[in-house]
Amino acid sequence: MKTKITAGFILILAFFLNLPLFSQDLGDVNHDQKVNIVDALLIAQYYVQMPLETFYPEAADVDCSAVINIVDSLLVAQFYVGVIPELPCGAENTPTPSPPSQTAVPETGPYNYGEALQKAIFFYKAQRSGDLPHDYPLIWRGDSGMTDGQDVGLDLTGGWYDAGDHVKFNLPMAFSAAQLGWAVYEYREAFESAGQLDIILDEIKWTTDYLIKCHPEPDTYYFQCGLGDSDHGFWGPPEVIHLTTDRSSSVVNPSRPGSDAAGQAAAALAIASIIFEKTDPAYADLCLSHARDLHKFADTYRGFYPIKGYYPSGSYLDDIGWAAIWLYLKTSEEKYLENAKTTIGGSGMIGGLHTLCWDDVSYGVVLKLAQITEDPLYVQGIETSLNFWLPGGGVVYTPGGLAWKDTWGSLRYASGAAFLAFVWAEIPVGTAAKKEAYRDFAIGQMNYILGDNPNDMSYVVGFGKNPPQHPHHKAAHGSWLSQLDTPAYHRHTLYGALVGGPDNKDFHNDDITDYTMNEVADDYNAAFTGCMARMYSLYGGVPIPGFPRTEDFRPINDRLPELFVRGFLTGEYAPQANIHLQMDNRTAWPARVIDTLSARYFIDISEIVEAGFGANDLSAAVQVEDGAVVTGPHKWSGNIYYFEIDFSGTLIYPGGWEESEKDCQFNLIHPLNVWNSANDWSAQEIETKPDYNAKTFFGMTPYIPVYENGKLVFGQEPPK
Predict the structure, then answer these.
(1) Which DSSP state fits 421?
(2) What is the pLDDT of residue 254?
């Protein structure tokens, strides 16, 4: 039975028991704050200096759903954690609290915004290209794109892959870094309170470091690594793309301008120069220097960047103005403010009926101009845009309440509009009566994304109830055959990824082949991450301690085999046994390119010895080698010998049918009418009919062990 306890009761009880009371004057808390009692009880343990395991909320005889004044809660908590050494509700022993579940209990509000923020940032870990840190927390990702820039004599490693593909499209990448930086600029305290500030700064720096590499000279900027058509023809992990796709570098310069691409990079670096001022002033200065040069280049040599088919830009004036407004905020130099006004004012971009996205950052420019100048032109412009997104304002609303702008990435646009609404709602400029409506709009859109929708699902992978299971993402899927249906499920959870979203009737298709609804991308998560920071500051939440933990990944015993041999004894004819081996590399933890694989086929020659022959009377005749060299027999122990099938020097990797599986067929030649395979270690349970379907695991046998650079990595050796 849950008991209602008053602070007065606790005070009286404390008096009789002569307890030291919690001091309201000394407590470093907001006395007026309303909190969930369970959270307050846990917080109270710090104040009354009790060990963590003393209080266990599931067993506590309190109304755990109550929301009360924090001081009263602390007093209640003092009673529970300071007086009762044994738990109420009949608990015999004090259990040690288990780690929080994947969806920890939020402080207030319907969702755990702390966890959502944490995972939204974590998504970018899956997008990283380049030389990853040795202690990288995402254990299914490895170094990749390590040849980027070599075609032009530069090191262009690093940055983020764009979406579920592996091209580094700098235009949306720079937008994403700038948008994340803007979120830190507005909500730094929220990130810090959630323990995510250092994490998001590190993620932004990973990309701004790359953007700096792409800017080797003042008027030269490399805007892309990889080619869209080539990359989209391969469905496999990023760790092998240097062998499967064209990683050409693309550049803009005075004779081949790209104001949009250069302007976006300048904006990202200008914002970085602001948000890194406190933590790394030298790096902030470096970012500012590159931002200045890139903005000057973009503004001086105006033109669209030369790209075909992927991310064509609608305008470059917004990108120039976007960089200028942040350079003004950094330097207070009037020339940048005037540049922002000029590029936006003469472009017809004030009061647009779309929203902030990679191809149109004018909305951000107008909002900041309105905030800085309080000019009615810009104030009316941003409010016209935001009013369009309110119910009845013009944008389509789904039956479930999503402000739906476009088929492709509907949640991306709702998040962009919500971020603008959140920021504008807090600025003391504009129509005061509209501020609450803007904030409510943004809150409603975020809650729709997290689960308040007709599908009763979260649209964030690995978060909440019924999240997507099949995002359109090569690395998370983990195919070794470059096929969307192999395997039939994702080998990895793409934590924090915001999928494209539903149609205008709230229908969503959780299908890997549906890149319209189930695509993920850097820019999809960018504004969403900022919105989660604001939701966290409004409602709180509990980021998962130690995330990602061991239990946040697929258990080892539930993973598909990665390195193994499929073996077949296809026939025995005097004087030979026909052996067919298929060496497989289906690695995904992480995917790896390996050229040191070998296998051993163990035999027992007891019958040969009894007939007066020996190991020297055996040999191997290779029929199909596919890069393998067969040697032996080599002595193991007693009458146990093995033939070694060595693929050293042959690249085997999860990059397609022929790339992931290499064949070796050889005839084991033996004395006539003496051979008996029944006692051979490697012939145990061996199949007889070869399977050439590399989707299956048919024929996989532990009795033909596999070695990487001489070290056993799969299977069992016979005892010595």
Answers:
(1) H
(2) 98
